[in-house]
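EI: anyone free to look at a 154-residue chain?
SC: sure, send it
EI:
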Amino acid sequence: MEQGLEWYKRLLKEKGMKTTSQRLAIFEVLSGEPDRHFTAEEIYDKVKEKWPDIGLATVYRNIQKLSEFGVIDKLNLDDGFVRYEIGDPDRDKAKHHHHHLICRKCGGVFTFEDDLLEALESRIRETMGFIVSDHEVKFYGWCRKCSQARGENE
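SC: here you go
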């Protein structure tokens, strides 16, 4: 998701959050590498490059607050770490997150932007009366590079 700094500032304001230098630095880290899913410690290391006096507790506190307000999303990619990425403020408008492809060999995480579950969600609504507002799908396998190394054809 390509979102600029002005969008982020506006989102913080809409959520009733102050625009602080720490929150802007966290956004810069996450938006600077949108295909990467950072741990809190990795965010801290990157933020510390620009703000050497910032403390780990400050970064953790801001990440928690941004996550609570849906500005950034928490991810569990089954690697023992909580990871973060820029959130989707439209998630409540029947729009879903992208999905993650996780390579069993190299541990690479790739995003997939297609939603193939509309029929299932409709069936759930019809049979259970349950309205799905979001879902998370993780696919496990081998990335192109690792599958080629395994000698598998594409």
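EI: The helical segments are 5-14, 21-32, 40-50, 56-68, 118-128, 144-149.
SC: 👍
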